[in-house]
Amino acid sequence: MISAPVRLRRPGGDFDAVPVAEDVHWIGALDPTLRSFDIILKTANGTTYNSYCVRGSEGVAVIDTVKAEFADEFFSRLEQVARYDEITTIVLNHLEPDHTGALPELLRRAPQARLYISHRAPLMLKGLLKHDGESLDFTTVTQGDSISLGDRSLRFLHTPFLHWPDTQCTYLVEDGILFSGDIFGCHFCDPRLFNDKVGDFRFSFEYYYQHIMRPFREHVLAALPLVEALELNLICPAHGPIHRDAPRGYVKRYRQLAESQLANEARQRDKTLVIFYISAYGNTAVMAQAIKDGAESVDGVRVSVYDLQGGEVTPFVDLIEEADGLAIGSPTINGDAVKPVWDLLSCLTQVPLKGKLGAAFGSYGWSGEAVGMLEDRLRGLKLRVPCPGIKLKLIPTGEELADCHAFGRNLALQLTGQAAFRVVDIAELA
Questions:
Q1: Is residue 429 part of a domain?
Q2: What are phi and psi of 416, to 5 degrees?
Q3: In whole angstroms, what is the distance from residue 273 CA to residue 74 CA?
Q4: Among the three residues 242, 258, 274, which one is the final residue of a domain in this structure?
Q5: How far apart are CA 324 and CA 355, in angstroms?
Q6: Residue 3 above 50 pLDDT?
Q7: Which of 178, 344, 219 has the alpha carbon at shortest distance from 275?
Q8: pLDDT at 4 over 60
Q9: Which residue in 99, 114, 109, 118 sits closest to 47, CA to CA?
Q10: Residue 224 above 90 pLDDT?
Q11: CB-based burial of residue 175 (10 Å sphere; 0-12 exposed, 13-18 middle, 19+ buried)?
């Protein structure tokens, strides 16, 4: 049985609206007992569903709503700062249910309000709300579009895939306030709301980035110049604390998290290959070293080798994300690759890998299925696997290690674009 959400009372009243700036209020909801969000995120401090009300001389705008279970809090706070007949504008920066849960009831109570969504959002809106589509009236907006509230205006930033295709940000021009949607947010519930008042949420901020935004790093880097060009007095995200103290610092941190650090250390022209292995009796380890030596025989390739038995796999994800190629080695035990290898590969769904070079190798005693299984998984992760994997039975001979050396050299030639074209036998693809 799912228990009802716990309501967190604020000192000033049950469900008080909170002033953010002059005639701008937080009207969201607090969910302090949430411990898992969308299955994949742990939320040790719960979360908030942030919604905002902006009053202009010619109308009131509501920016995002809340999860349906918290609609009573949302409407209680909204009613403290606006009448329903004053609402002219409803903006949805993102259409996931935790932002749109109260929307149907809000449209019923304020039928005159115009709904604004990104130009990529209509199909999602129809799917989420199960609306007819023809009876639900809305306006789509994109980069640079704006709407007027009289003495205030809202301008839209097109920021797709942060972290859904429909996401956008909304900027209150005259006040320098960015309603940023999920970007710059985190799952951290503290009724004091503002970053200079709440507890230390740095872990939650970076954990959120790693799990929500990191898979869309190229889109983060595309969106940051739009945000960096703004005057920023406040960043009001859809989850977590409102950034009123040094808001630009959070933008700077996103850039640091999104930009490659390896490029600052390796020469611009170098290609990078990372080799990961785990070895039961040292045979796969010897193969890894020979592959490394072969790859390093090609100029312009920088090679790193890591034993998965020596550490946690999560920190290695950064290395793989920034590398040009990945070779992974495992013995075959009970007809499979070993668990630390699968643990590493499961972490790679968080990062963009399409087009990187992939390869597999390993020793075996009886059947040797691990290499083929690893190649299939690398292809499933969108890596290209141009060189058939190499597998050796038990202790490698000198001749077999020479084959490993040649395998590594071939990988390096592939990375640098020097490999000769080869004819692929259809039997290889079966």
A1: no
A2: -95, 5
A3: 51
A4: 258
A5: 9
A6: no
A7: 344
A8: no
A9: 99
A10: yes
A11: middle
pLDDT at 231: 97
Pairing between strand 271-277 and 301-307? Answer: parallel
How far is CA 160 from each of CA 117, 119, 125, 147, 196, rounded to the nearest angstrom? Answer: 12, 10, 15, 20, 29
Judge whether 84 lies within some domain. yes
In whole angstroms, what is the distance from residue 58 CA to residue 174 CA?
15
Instruction: Answer yes or no: is pLDDT of 269 > 70.
Output: no
Identify the domain containing residue 315 by its residue range. Answer: 266-421
pTM of the model: 0.77
At position 21, the amino acid (one-letter code) is A
C-alpha to C-alpha distance for 235 and 250, rounded to whole angstroms: 9
Domain CATH code at residue 270: 3.40.50.360
Residues 26 and 97 in one domain: yes
Backbone φ and ψ of 117, nearest 5°: -135, 165
- Before 239, cis peptide (omega within 30)? no
CA distance 296 to 274: 12
* Domain closes at, from 258, 284, 312: 258
